[in-house]
């Protein structure tokens, strides 16, 4: 099975900061990675797919990069609405598994 | 606008079978572009994929749950369903249904990819 490991688990940052969250896969998943944002009591929302493609309607301050086993989600300038938990998810078809990372909680400093 | 709505009992006793239905509106479950999936989230914890189905009935399951899970689709009602047998307290979670967007992998096979629309989720508690 492909394991997904996010770091850090918790991140404290201030409005306007540039932040980066990392997701590592236990084996290569090419670019088959998505990022989601989840706010308390709500369903996750898709931000990024295929590692770096921005989902329609998502602000351009969100960006994704990486391939193989290491991926990053970057928020260029934190806004109040961005404080949430972020998850990565791999969808390498060879595994027939759709595994999520454990999540990164982004908190206000 | 696409909407997904989970429904089913919110309280179960250990050893019972969890049964949830996801009703899809604003789009057809028979679209060849999409799969349909179930994901769960125990209170205060992360997301766990349970399984995914295509309108044709082809399905994929999380190996850790496969022996207890059945996912089915009813295209005439634009619904798909989840059954999880022999539940325990460890199955207490918010259960989400979601549209599982497909993509062509490097072999040209159309596979499930990312989850682009989600239901609001329903809390299922297992307690005696």
Please describe what this structure looks like.
The complex is a heterodimer of chains A (109) and B (128). Chain A is built from no helices and ten strands. Chain A has a six-stranded mixed sheet, with no helix packed on it. Chain A has a four-stranded antiparallel sheet with strand order 1-3-8-7, with no helix packed on it. Chain A has 109 residues and is mainly beta. Chain A has strands spanning 4-7, 10-13, 19-25, 33-38, 45-49, 53-54, 62-67, 70-75, 85-90, 104-108. Chain A is 0% helix and 47% strand. Chain B is mainly β and 128 residues long. Helix content of chain B is 0%, strand content 55%. In chain B, strands 2, 4, 5, 6, 9, 10 and 11 form a seven-stranded mixed sheet that branches. In chain B, strands 1-3-8-7 form a four-stranded antiparallel sheet, with no helix packed on it. The model of chain B has no long low-confidence stretch (mean pLDDT 96). The interface between A and B is medium-sized, with 26 and 28 residues.
Please provide a brief summary of the model.
The complex is a heterodimer of chains A (109) and B (128). Chain A is mainly beta and 109 residues long.
Task: Lay out the secondary structure.
The complex is a heterodimer of chains A (109) and B (128).
Chain A: E1 4-7, E2 10-13, E3 19-25, E4 33-38, E5 45-49, E6 53-54, E7 62-67, E8 70-75, E9 85-90, E10 104-108
Chain B: E1 3-7, E2 11-12, E3 18-25, E4 34-41, E5 48-53, E6 59-61, E7 69-74, E8 79-84, E9 93-104, E10 110-118, E11 122-126
Parallel strand pairs in B: 2-11
Antiparallel strand pairs in B: 1-3, 3-8, 4-5, 4-9, 5-6, 7-8, 9-10, 9-11
The percent range for helix content of chain B is under 10%
What is the count of β-strands of chain A? Answer: 10
**Pattern of helices and strands of chain B:** EEEEEEEEEEE
* Computed Rg of chain B: 14 Å
Give the strand tally of chain B.
11
Mean pLDDT metric of chain B = 96
| Classification by helices and strands of chain A | mainly beta
Cα radius of gyration of chain A in angstroms: 13 Å
Helix fraction of chain A, binned, reads under 10%
């Amino acid at each position: 099975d492909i394991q997904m490991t996010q770091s850090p688990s918790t991140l404290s940052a201030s409005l306007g900061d540039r932040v980066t969250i990392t997701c590592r896969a236990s084996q290569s998943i090419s670019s088959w990675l998505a990022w989601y944002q989840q706010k308390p009591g709500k369903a996750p929302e898709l931000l990024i797919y295929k590692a770096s493609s921005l989902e329609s309607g998502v602000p351009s301050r969100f960006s994704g990069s990486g391939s193989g086993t290491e991926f990053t989600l970057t928020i260029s300038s934190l806004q109040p609405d961005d404080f949430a938990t972020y998850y990565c998810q791999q969808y390498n078809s060879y595994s027939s598994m759709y595994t999520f990372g454990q999540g990164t909680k982004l908190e206000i400093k | 606008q696409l909407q997904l709505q989970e429904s089913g009992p919110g309280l179960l006793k250990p050893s019972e079978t969890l049964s949830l239905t996801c009703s899809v509106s604003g789009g057809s479950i028979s679209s060849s572009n999409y799969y349909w999936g179930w994901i769960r989230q125990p209170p205060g914890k992360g997301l766990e994929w349970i399984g995914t189905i295509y309108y044709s009935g082809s399905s994929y399951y999380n190996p850790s749950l496969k022996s207890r899970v059945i996912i089915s689709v009813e295209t005439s009602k634009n619904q798909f369903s989840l059954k999880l047998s022999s539940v325990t307290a460890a199955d207490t979670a918010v259960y989400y249904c979601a549209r599982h967007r497909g993509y062509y992998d490097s072999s040209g096979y159309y596979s499930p990819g990312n989850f682009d629309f989600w239901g609001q989720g329903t809390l299922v508690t297992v307690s005696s």
